[in-house]
Amino acid sequence: MTFSPWQLFVDLGLAAVLLLVGQLLRSRVRAIQWMFLPASVIGGFIGLGLGPNGADVLMMSAAFSAYPGILIALIFAALPFASEHVGFRALSARLTDLWAFSSTAILIQWSVGILFTALVLQTVWEGLSPGFGALIAAGFVGGHGTAAAMGETFGDLGWPEAGSLAMTAATVGILSSIVGGMIWVKWGSRCGHAEFVTRFDDLPEALRTGLVKEDSRESVGDETVSSSSVDTLALHFCLISAAALAGYFLSRGSGWLFPQYKIPVFCLAYVAAVVAHRVFRATRIIGYIDRRTMTHIGGALTDVLVVFGIASIRPAILVEYAAPLASLFAVGIASCCFLFRCLGPRFFRAYWFERSLFTWGWITGVTAMGIALLRIVDPRNDSAALDDFGVAYLFIAPIEIGLVALAPQMLMSGHSWALAGATLVCAMLLIVARGRRLLPPHHSCAPAQVPD
To answer: Does residue 139 contact residue 169 with C-beta atoms inside 8 Å?
Structure first.
């Protein structure tokens, strides 16, 4: 099929229909509600089953699998504009708990995946790509957005199967997030660690069905310019697109200057957006950029990306890599269990179960999964985990984005041991510092106490 602008229109229309069907099923099917599956994931699965890699009844173009690589550049370009400006002074002891634990989780996922691949998987299955070990971090702590970014980068570096494998890892991560999370909830309730557990039927309807009642709705943003000149949404989307376009040309320039190392578009789009954000702050233009609007544009782009990403997974590749992939996922889930059960009580001075469960949700799935699990065990937000995460993530993001940008090139150029060693040492330093109270002090596994 020859690609044309109308085929692009059809692809976007199909993604929209799949999203709508996903939301309809989320709002109606109780089993799906219990799993807290986002509409984008549901729609992606339907697209996978009905698309070219399944029943082949949808008129998807061959470019369907290329869209995530473009969308991720736009998503990364939105991040600096969607983030609240917070200085290092905001890192109180409580925030440091969450920052240290989350950073340790990221570093352990990278180091464990790479080491397990180098020591075991590449020994058993010869010819396995050195980038295979990055799939845990790409899919679990990264999610579908990071999976798309790293899949594209690995593809440019000579590993075309990476995209489907990374998307699969992200999907398995989401399923592990909620299934494993519910197991932890039952365990915590039985052992006395979870004192505020809420029944599923008592959760807010918006959390279960995805539909927000009229009296609970909030504004998605503020109008910062007059529609007589330009629509507010158009202005904000143009800013994101301009930063992404700058990233594209910078990436092409880097490939021309350094043929052996082409910096990914999404990485330079993020850099361009950071520079633009700083300039706007210095010139006070930032007052006309609404953070909530940028957040929702980024969220909308992510929903579309997930549909495209899951629908473009190639099952034949999964069959080929089934055994090493299953082994890697088992080790990845085991490492997350170790983080939750063994390190969680040591990192958090209070509410260790609630804060660890929230972290479990987002380091295996997405932030929305962490929120869903947190609402089950902490409906009154006594732990303040979500509030703290909003600030702490501003200091977690540089670690995550830096690894996503640098790791593929290092792995594919033969520096697996250096990367694994560096991430493992950094993780151990955080753990040791936690034990020696250079970070906030040790907290036992005793049940969380309600403050007076």
So the answer is: yes
